[in-house]
Design goal:
The chain has 306 residues and is of the alpha+beta class. It has seven helices and ten strands. Strands 1, 2, 3, 4, 5, 6, 7, 8, 9 and 10 form a ten-stranded mixed beta sheet that branches. α2 crosses α3.
């Protein structure tokens, strides 16, 4: 076996993908996933098998569900230094640039690695992240329906009151227990800091005429963004009052709450990180368990979200 004593090199991967052809991010037996395709491609270009090394394992900033897209996803992978150098072959370019090009040669068209760089000390794609920003796009006008955009824009048959949706969304901003908007998972907290939640109808640009949500938080729990969008659509249609999304939040119960909308309208746009000298500290802070009573304006509830 080669490379056993070689120190690993941590690489940052900036990537994008069309989620339509993937069963989500996480590797699953028998399913095509982003992680599985990416790790297999890395194993190929790094020649992990022939070198007698374990296949690469990738850590991502935020796992996306089946059908959700990403423009600004970030991941990291630890590789043996010798494998990285060998992947360059006879090229005189930097090894990370050569690796980026070689990945482009084996990855499918719906998954692109825009850049591979050496990660700064302390960098962890998941735990060092400060925030994730998503956009959800809706078309509520027949005149604007574009079949070429159907894979990333939700078609909606009723006209939407964007001002009401925006007013309702802003009441949810802050650090709260989002249990009413999250699919529960064992031993997982639903406390999050929602930094921005706003709705608009852009007058120009690629999203002109669409109804677009801008959603940013320190992190999101399972199905949270799509449930927030579902509550907003109920307000925009006039089926629910502007106060309803906040009432759901305060009730902290999933049952009878917001509909989780289709995944294809959702895109991960950006992942933000602190300066290099704060990466390790941020990772340590994120790993610390969120306290159940550390929320804005909510008293702790026994047995909830430890």
């Amino acid at each position: 076996m080669t490379g056993v004593d070689e120190p690993p090199v941590r690489l940052r991967l900036d990537l994008a993908y069309d989620g339509a052809g993937f069963a989500g991010w996480a590797r699953q037996p028998g399913l095509r996933t982003v992680q599985g395709v990416l790790e297999d491609a890395l194993a190929t270009v790094l020649r992990s098998g022939p070198r007698g090394e374990a296949p690469p394992r990738v850590t991502v900033a935020g796992r996306t569900d089946a059908g959700v897209h990403a423009r600004g996803q970030v991941a990291h992978v630890d590789v043996v230094a010798g494998a990285l150098a060998a992947a360059r072959g006879r090229s005189d370019r930097a090894d990370v640039d050569a690796l980026t090009t070689r990945l482009a040669g084996v990855l499918p068209a719906d998954l692109v690695v825009h850049a591979v760089t050496r990660a700064p000390a302390g960098f962890d794609a998941r735990f060092s992240a400060l925030r994730r920003r998503y956009a959800y796009r809706v078309c509520d006008a027949d005149a604007l329906r574009d079949p070429l955009r159907r894979g990333w824009v939700l078609g909606h048959r009723r006209p939407l009151d964007v001002a009401a949706m925006d007013a309702a969304a802003r009441t949810l901003v802050g650090r709260h227990d989002f249990a009413a908007y999250c699919k529960p998972r064992p031993d997982a907290t639903t406390i999050r800091t929602l930094e921005r939640f706003a709705w608009s109808r852009p007058a120009d640009g690629p999203d002109a005429g669409l109804v677009v949500a801008d959603v940013q938080a320190d992190a999101f729990c399972h199905s949270m963004v799509r449930a927030l969008v579902g509550a907003s659509l109920a307000v925009g249609e006039g089926r629910r009052p502007v106060t309803w999304p906040r009432e759901l939040l305060d009730g902290r119960r999933r049952e009878g709450g917001a509909t989780v909308v289709a995944p294809h309208g959702l895109t991960l746009e950006h992942v933000g990180y602190p300066s290099d000298d704060e990466l390790a500290l941020r990772a340590a802070q994120t790993r610390a368990r969120r306290a159940a009573d550390d929320v804005d304006g909510v008293r702790p509830v026994s047995g909830c979200c430890g």
